[in-house]
């Protein structure tokens, strides 16, 4: 598991535990914070990420809803405008399709349309990531969609440490924040200090320092990048791994600086490559580091198909360590 | 569960001051909309707008039953709701013209006027778009125990939107202090509602066990009486309710909808404006009850006209925002 230089404590938590701890701490700190969603109370969600919260905070603050995503997301928007700080739970990121009006036409625009008078301090937690054998409607990584919309902030943590610190920041932010958790990472362990900390938005993290090539990776693709970096090391290529952590605000400076340093870049993201996050990041780097690059910025995203069910087919749609390794080797001119 | 009873009684004791205030407010909305149409015709207003003329009694009757700190959500046809909740016409006209002095610094326009000072959560240009937001405001009012309620205004066109029913379901499950105010002006844009609405409208709230009443939306005293009951009910913690206000849209769907014969007859429009005008109905009653005489009502009209003329002049003279304003307020 990748570690950040800023980590201090030796305690280990899973990604899911880190999320739960962030929620519990913020709910203890601020009585306005509440959780709204399907099966969030006793069930603790299908992923069991919220288990135990209803016991501590009660059903008044951990609120089970009907299966009505647009309805309870909109209730979250209205509640956020009028004094609460709701954390809305959208079980699968695929259900963003159901709530696009509430987040795009309503939440994202209310502050602007009202001339800065109303605010929507709401967090919307949802999932992403394939290979859970959940087929085409429960496996997509749709984080590029909200990243396209002014007024939203979009967060993609890749470690338990980042998940906790970024979620606490999200809850304290006065804007609608869409928080994507890769459902395949919930059991992943990593160090999380017991002391209070938050992580600011718009600050990328260099997960691994290197000199020959920059691997920009998001969410679970950070682990893929680590696997590739290890393979590259064996053939004498030193890879730097940069995790932007927040799609918007985007830390363009750190991305460009790393690209200037290594002169070669691959961007890896589990969303679709076409018109996706990799396209935006590649463009930022191409504009900001053009004269320092040895070649075009390479992109690796999900295969441009609906996510298939059959395991060998599904696995083939997600960027792999080997794919990244091969692309990096070619870019570095090593045979 | 309350049945869908037709209610016409106007029994709440309204003071003379309240009645005259409601008359003034309705007349203000009428005058405001006449000016809005005029600004459009003179090409002084960018885009277009949706006029509330004919429906004034609904907004005024309901908002008169609210506290200043209660919430409302409004619609694309929202000027009446904003004014009835206490918005100032000068800043509203400024918003219609895209000026910096507008309620939204010119960035919202006619369909998005919002004003925290009067509890106006905002007009919404997505039909049914505020149903869940209004319910969310009621949700936080209940959680915070601040005694506020929320009125969700929507047209009968929103009866076609699923999110309305999702919100109503949760409002009743959680006994939220929200009043769903359906303004049936009979036309979903250019289509009579009978062509879009299966079954009975009142059966829809009934399906959730939400008490519902029908009211003559041209009679401001009847609207106020019904709204007062439902608002009190919400404030007492008894939960949501639904009021169907039968009314009529004098103008087209928007200011440019001039030739309407293909979807409704001129005789129908004339019948409503000559026989069922909400301002005349209240004015005639006030005179008949000797609560006001014609001279008093004409004085109100003269004062309102002067106020609206001044408000329009203010808006026309007001500066546009500087271009750097475009990037302000994207994030809080």
Secondary-structure topology with pairs:
The complex is a heterodimer of chains A (335) and B (332).
Chain A: E1 12-14, H1 15-29, E2 33-37, H2 53-57, E3 62-64, H3 69-81, E4 85-90, H4 100-113, E5 123-128, H5 144-147, E6 153-155, H6 160-172, E7 177-182, E8 189-191, E9 205-208, E10 213-217, H7 221-234, E11 239-243, E12 246-248, H8 252-262, E13 265-272, H9 277-289, E14 298-302, H10 311-317, H11 321-331
Parallel strand pairs in A: 2-3, 2-4, 4-5, 5-7, 6-7, 10-11, 10-13, 13-14
Antiparallel strand pairs in A: 1-8, 6-12, 9-11
Helix pairs in contact in A: 1-6, 3-4, 7-11, 8-9
Chain B: E1 5-7, H1 16-41, H2 56-63, E2 71-75, H3 79-84, H4 89-96, E3 120-124, H5 131-144, E4 150-155, H6 162-173, E5 178-184, E6 187-188, E7 191-192, H7 203-207, E8 212-216, H8 220-235, E9 241-246, H9 266-275, H10 278-288, H11 294-317
Parallel strand pairs in B: 1-8, 2-3, 2-4, 4-5, 5-9, 8-9
Antiparallel strand pairs in B: 6-7
Helix pairs in contact in B: 1-2, 1-10, 1-11, 2-8, 4-11, 5-6
Task: Walk me through what this model shows.
The complex is a heterodimer of chains A (335) and B (332). Chain A is an alpha/beta fold and 335 residues long. Helix content of chain A is 36%, strand content 19%. Chain A has 2 domains: 179 residues, Thiamin diphosphate (ThDP)-binding fold, Pyr/PP domains (Rossmann fold, 3-Layer(aba) Sandwich), CATH 3.40.50.970; 127 residues, Rossmann fold, CATH 3.40.50. In chain A, the strands form 3 sheets. Chain A has a 7-stranded mixed β-sheet with strand order 3-2-4-5-7-6-12, with helices on both faces. A 5-stranded mixed β-sheet of chain A has the order 9-11-10-13-14, sandwiched between helices. Chain A has a two-stranded antiparallel sheet with strand order 1-8. In chain A, strand 10, helix 7 and strand 11 form a beta-alpha-beta unit. The longest helix of chain A has 15 residues. With 332 residues, chain B is α/β, with parallel strands linked by helices. Chain B contains 11 helices and 9 strands. The longest helix of chain B has 26 residues. The N terminus of chain B is likely disordered. At the A-B interface, helix 3 and helix 4 of A face strand 3, helix 5 and helix 6 of B.
